[in-house]
Specification:
Layout: E1 9-14, H1 15-25, H2 40-56, E2 60-64, H3 73-77, H4 90-105, E3 109-111, H5 118-131, E4 135-139, E5 154-157, E6 162-164, H6 166-173, H7 180-187, H8 202-212, H9 215-220, H10 222-226, H11 234-243, H12 245-255, H13 275-284, H14 289-300
Parallel strand pairs: 1-2, 1-4, 2-3, 4-5
Antiparallel strand pairs: 5-6
Helix pairs in contact: 1-2, 1-4, 2-4, 2-14, 4-13, 7-8, 7-12, 13-14
Length: about 300
Amino acid sequence: MDGLNARGTAYLVDASMYVFRGWHAYPADAFRDIDGHPANATYGFVRFLLEFLERVRPAQVLLAFDSALGSSFRNLLYPAYKANREPAPPDLLRQFDACRAFAQALGLSAHAHASYEADDLIGSAAVRARALGLDCVVVSADKDFGQLLGARDQQWDWARDARWGPDGVRQRFGVDPRQISDFLGLCGDAVDNIPGVPGVGAKTAARLLVQFGDLESLLARTGDLAVSTTLRGAASLAARLGEHADAARLYKRLATIACDAPLPPECLARGAGDAMLLQDLMDRHRFGPHTRGRALAQLQAIPA
């Protein structure tokens, strides 16, 4: 058992991150399935997943996969959302399906949605977990998840084995978790192709939110900002905020994790798994005896 009491904690895993890491960490020709297709992302993901299960042994866990690549509700609001990213190649898309199948064969609750991103599935699962009296650990390095952290929650960057709670969000960004989407609405997020307000960087965004609290309060008080003597260039900054107010509101909405994605009632429960499906998947992906043994052992280790 690692860290928090696993029976009082829901582990919410940004599964797509670890599929991508497998894709980039291993050469495509190093691992192939029985049909000759690359299996490097699948291998990397399964390796991560087995390490995670062996270390944590979670009773409540959800894995969120991205299938809303270009089709999420955010693309309807802002077509340029994530347009800076190259489309995933077919060999990688094929492996997403295999990774999700492996997770389900191991009895894990694995979900994707055509309109909601993995972040939204995790946010919605966090709401469900809190209703059950559970703390949450979000397993991801993505900064957006800072907005989900309550007083007893943590984010866990698995690759660096680094964990932080709300205080860690404040140390990293200079704002509270509840202000992360306001922060990104102001300074933008280049990773997701969210521009932000011109001329507003991370330090300025944090200073503004410390002073005004949230985006709407800031936009309502640009007159106060314009005469500020504590912020250099306050008058021109206030003018830019007034000019780009609607855009800032849109950018905040794009950066806000939705917590209303549809999930089944038992979305956090770990099931019994499927030994036959697991064996078939390992055969198809030509896994060796060591990985096979570790995977099958997990079917025996599922918490009652």
